[in-house]
Amino acid sequence: MNAVSLSSAFTGRVVRGEPMSRHTSWHVGGPAEIYFEPRDVHDLEAFLRALPADAAVTWIGLGSNLLVRDGGVRGAVVATHGVFDRLHRLSQTEVHCEAGVPCARLAKQCVKWGLGPAEFFAGIPGTLGGALAMNAGAFGGETWSHVVHVETIDRAARHHQRPREDYTVGYRSVRQTNPPPTEEWFLGARLKFERRPQAHADDIRALLERRKETQPIGAWSGGSTFVNPPGDHAARLIETAGLKGHRIGGASVSTKHANFILNEGHATAADIENLIVTVQQTVRRIHGVALQTEVRIIGETA
Ligand SMILES: Cc1cc2nc3c(=O)[nH]c(=O)nc-3n(C[C@H](O)[C@H](O)[C@H](O)COP(=O)(O)OP(=O)(O)OC[C@H]3O[C@@H](n4cnc5c(N)ncnc54)[C@H](O)[C@@H]3O)c2cc1C
Q1: What does the pLDDT read at residue 3?
Q2: Fewer CB within 10 Å, N side or C side of the chain?
């Protein structure tokens, strides 16, 4: 991608060949052709305008739902974490949160403000931008249940404000349907909660403790690898197919929670992807169910 020169007048950080393994919770992934951490929204606008029209653009939050292949990512990767990080209260029940804010911070701040239910955000180790893209949810709560509107930016650096009604939202799925899909990314959202003066930081701690008992929190993973099929649990299907502990290279199916695939320290993205395919094939053969990935797989094979 020659048109974006490193000497261009961006004040943010532009790196050629940044290893994506530094930016994903699986700690795997080859280099991004261009990795960009904008300094602010104007910097981002200038960058988007300078990109060649045919250059692919991938946005990344905390990389907690991303498997980046070993050959890396063509085009530009735009990182939001640490950049779009403002969070403030707008009214008795509404807050404005930028896309780079970690969900855990949103949860804690809402509890301090006496707003909820927002504790569930503490269980999502990503940014609000990633949570909006995924309709991330935990402990019975879902991101889009709280969206009043989102702010987006498109490929030509134009800004939009879109109400919730412009999106078709389902379990771990979000699709812009009005107007028909264009290439847009989330810069922030106006979120609505209820007044919960009794909300307490201990509620968050209790939820996280409960989770630690059943999930390999702290290990290198992408969280739940597969979405739960209707009326069932991916973990149950994987476990009863005898796959707990199954390994390929440095990747293994967690023995604690079968829907988690772990990088034991030396896995490649190919190990993880091969294990994902093996799990899908085995579950299909034994249970007749086609598991769909919840994690997003991007990039080129090595
Ligand atoms: C240990 C662990 C536990 C987890 N538990 C849960 C859970 O309980 N519930 C749950 O739902 N998820 C869970 N996850 C998955 C993950 O944390 C969520 O999907 C989260 O919302 C991803 O946010 P992120 O910022 O890391 O996004 P990334 O992984 O960086 O990106 C995910 C997707 O969102 C897109 N994206 C990111 N930012 C933007 C943006 N600003 N605009 C448009 N698109 C964007 C990316 O391009 C990509 O397609 C877990 C993951 C781990 C590792």
Answers
A1: 44
A2: C
Residue whose tokens read 């879109």: 162
Q: What is the rounded distance in angstroms from the CA atom of residue 204 to the CA atom of residue 118?
A: 9
Q: Give me the catalytic one of 18, 98, 151, 294.
A: 294
Task: Say how many C-beta atoms besides its own lie within 10 A of residue 112's C-beta.
Answer: 12
Helix (H, G, I), strand (E, B) or coil at 133: helix
Q: What is the pTM of this model?
A: 0.97
pLDDT tens digit sequence for 112-147:
999 999 999 999 999 999 999 999 999 999 999 999
Helical (H) or strand (E) element with 32: strand 31-37
Angle at 12 between CA 96 and CA 147, to 5 degrees: 20
Instruction: Give 266: exposed, middle or buried? Use CB within 10 Å, 0-12, 13-18, 19+.
Output: exposed
- Of 71 and 2, the structure prediction assigns the larger pLDDT to 71
Non-local (6+) Cβ contacts of 151 within 8 A are 159, 160, 161, 162, 186, 187, 188, 189
How far apart CA 283 and CA 253 sit, in angstroms, is 13
Ligand 1 mean position, distance from CA 65 (Å): 4
Question: Torsion angle, CA of 112/118/119/121, rounded to 10 degrees?
Answer: -120
Please say if the pLDDT value at position 93 is more than 80.
yes
Reply yes or no on whether 224 is catalytic: yes
Helix (H), strand (E) at residue 223: strand 220-224
Q: Quick: pLDDT tens for 207-254.
A: 999 999 999 999 999 999 999 999 999 999 999 999 999 999 999 999
CA distance 147 to 191: 5
151 φ, ψ (degrees, to nearest 5): -110, 135
